[in-house]
Amino acid sequence: MSDSSKPVAQTWFGPITAVQRRAMFALVPVAVAFGLVVGLAFLPVTSGIGGLAKVGSEAVLDLPDELVLPPAPEASTLYASDGKTVIATFGDQYRVQLEYDQIPDSVIQALVATEDSNFFEHNGVDPEGVMRALVTNIADGGTSEGASTITMQYVRQVLSYTATTPEEVAAASEVTIDRKVKEMGYALALEEEMSKEDILTNYLNTVYFGNGAYGIGAAAQVYYGKVPADLTVAESAMLVGLIQSPSVYDPINGSSEAALARRNHVVNRMVDVGYLTSDEGETAKAEDLNLNPQEANNTSGGAIDSDYGFFVDYFEKWWEQQEDFGDSEEVRKARLYRGGYEITSTLNVELQDASQEAIENQLETGSEYALGSVVVEPGTGAIEVMAVNRNYSNDVSDNGPNTANSDYKGSYPNTTNPLLSGNADVNGYQAGSSFKMFTMLAALEAGMPLDTTIYSPYQYTSKYIVGDGEAACGNHWCPKNASQSEVGNYNMWTGFGESVNTYFVQLAERVGVDKAIDVAERLGIKFRNQQDLGHVENNPESFGPFVLGVTQTTPLDMAAAYAALPADGVYCKPTPVTSALTNSGGTIAFASECDQAVSVEVARAAVDAARCPTGYGAAEGNCTWGTAEQVSAAVDGPVAGKTGTTDSNSTNWFVGFTPNAAAAAFVADPDSPQNYVGKSNLGKPANAVADILAAQWEINGEGDFTPPSELVH
């Protein structure tokens, strides 16, 4: 007898064919687990599932925390230090969060009628629908994608939007019996924890409606330019109809005919279920689509103002490195973009704006030379300013030839944050004499007082062995002073104030360059350049040129390092954040990571010498003249710092500080380092920092430098 002539088994839900019967026998192992879950679904809505949580060896009903009243993905907001000024948003989905009473009955009824007419009767799984779908589809490879209740669909949505990798996203919606069983188990457990109203609200706040709209609030705006409460029955039906396939039924960029047909199907279901009378259904179907398309207000990672872009970019990179926010950078970024955090940053908008103006007054945006500055707060490491005469932009395509090399197409005036903070690809810029601070600190740590006097010639033949070059005498390094007039006896006050190279090279010979390097590392200086790193790791005691700043660094590193001095030697790792409010109302406080990098007396002695270059004058010694006396003239308060100029004027620096702010500024051509800045630009970092610290002192003009009581004479 052929299969076609055999009697067909009858069940309460319809006939089973021979083909379906064979497929069912093949799926008995999975069906056992499946049947247990379905059996649970037959329990009354009020029944508990307690001890029946296990199906097979898997806790399919052990509900993950994120499924219990999970917040829908929300953009995170980054505020300035005042906690009020929005400087950036991070989000990848446009949605408008609604409460249950903000969703009209027409939307609820259209959804239930179309997607799950037994929603208010079942306890998460519709057993009749599931069994019918299983028998109908089991011959097609053992998959069952029909009969998903609204609760099951919501489970799938949550698993998808909480996924942080492409693999997790795929697993959340893969077409397998195993996934379906787990989905049903979660749905049963979910209805133990959430009310029907909460499930509907969360579902309608998360489901995708196409054209960038997530949730019914966003969909009403994108398609009709109105809030959900103002939707007509026909409009509600059209939007609910999109849920099944937003692309197929897209009335804006797809087929309005398909959208109309789908809308009418939804209306018919509302009539069938009894939510509408026949006349009301006909009235709704007679209505035109009446679209009023609006642009989806999709948020994305980015600053509200381009001047904040460098800080915002640094913040995002910083966030991705915080292990407390997840096991991988992908997870951490997903939480930033979907977690709805309200984050208070360290950016001082008032000082940032003043700093940007100070920089532009020296070199306008569009100059081939980059002039940038970072301000760090002593004692906390808070990054208050990141300003540079560049446009923050990820579009660094060719914008014109660099004037130093007509064959080179540089990115200016567009660039991104590593210009100020560095990364694996951006090493920074030679800091010149601003590195003399680390040799002075090492000498002070070794017990040498500020009045340590050394005769310093115009040129000095050091003990450090180097290769051939302009600074070599035979095979020895023979640095010169900036001027032939710089000859005579110098101490730390005068040597630092006039930036006498041969004084500090001899000081390094006495204390050891390796000790100076150690101080620099304790103060957060990172060696990103491989050549610099090789010297530091393999032969630091012979790295004589380190003293005069041949290594590359960044304004962020230098500002944070110098910030330790007015903080009595406490170095704090730079941070862009003070606190964050989670979308569940919790507060995360970010503590500063600080260490006593140098002793209090060493720091105070160094500050006293650093007052000389600015013209502010030392408390315990005599300064002669300073290399940046315009700084004290501009700042109406205590100020110290150090200039830095490299060989052939390739770059120029100034790092200065008041009792409550440290600012580092540099000028260089980042697109062509061999395009030296020249003498005309040498004073511009000091001028910019002078204006920045003057503005800072007006904002917070408190405190003073404490003179050293030791290490003086």
TrEMBL record:
Locate the transmembrane regions by residue number. 23-43
- What's in the GO CC field? outer membrane-bounded periplasmic space
> Which residues does the UniProt record annotate as the domain Glycosyl transferase family?
85-270
Pfam families per the UniProt record, alphabetical: Transgly, Transpeptidase
InterPro entries, A to Z: Beta-lactam/transpept-like, Glyco_trans_51, Glycosyltr_51/Transpeptidase, Lysozyme-like_dom_sf, PBP_transglycosylase, PCN-bd_Tpept
Report domain Penicillin-binding protein transpeptidase positions: 374-688
* Keyword Cell wall biogenesis/degradation attributed: yes
Looking at the record's lineage, which domain of life comes first?
Bacteria
Single Gene Ontology MF annotation: serine-type D-Ala-D-Ala carboxypeptidase activity
Q: Which family does it belong to?
A: In the C-terminal section; belongs to the transpeptidase family.
The protein here is known as Membrane peptidoglycan carboxypeptidase
The organism named in the record is Glycomyces artemisiae
